[in-house]
Structure to design on (154 residues):
């Protein structure tokens, strides 16, 4: 049986990882995940193994059973590790987040009341304005692929 290996990392490139055999990908609505990700939920995927290929995450013990990994340089949430060593990585930190789509939601008691209504929000497409604004932006974000080295830009 062949292993599935996916790469990813933080926004600035200081921390990169190689994840083996991603499993269940989930959306967690608990308040700890909301705060850790600064979002409505955390999207996480369990992995069999993770190898930190550049740098290493900082860790914050968020509960009595787990700690949260993040880039100490740019603050990108990278995942969670329980005290048994099981790791779940942030799906948005993967170079190809489409490869780890969510399959389950849990901790629904913490789900924000408007979450299910987000798809009904009125789109405000402004392609000309977006193109104009985006043309002025120079991204300092690490690209979504491996690099031999990467100079952080501050």
């Amino acid at each position: 049986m062949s292993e599935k290996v996916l790469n990813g990392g933080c926004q600035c490139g200081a921390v990169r990882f190689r994840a083996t055999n991603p499993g269940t990908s989930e959306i967690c609505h608990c308040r700890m995940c909301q705060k850790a990700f600064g979002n409505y939920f955390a999207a996480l995927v369990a992995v069999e193994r993770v190898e930190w290929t550049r740098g290493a995450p900082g860790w914050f013990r968020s509960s009595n059973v787990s700690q949260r990994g993040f880039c100490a340089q740019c603050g990108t949430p990278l995942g969670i590790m329980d005290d048994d060593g099981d790791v779940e990585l942030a799906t948005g930190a993967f170079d190809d987040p489409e490869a780890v789509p969510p399959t389950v939601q849990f901790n629904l008691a913490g789900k924000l009341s408007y979450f299910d209504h987000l798809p009904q929000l009125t789109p405000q497409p402004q392609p000309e304005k977006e193109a104009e604004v985006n043309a002025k932006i120079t991204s300092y974000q690490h690209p979504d692929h491996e690099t031999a080295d990467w100079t952080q830009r501050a």
In short: The mean pLDDT is 92.
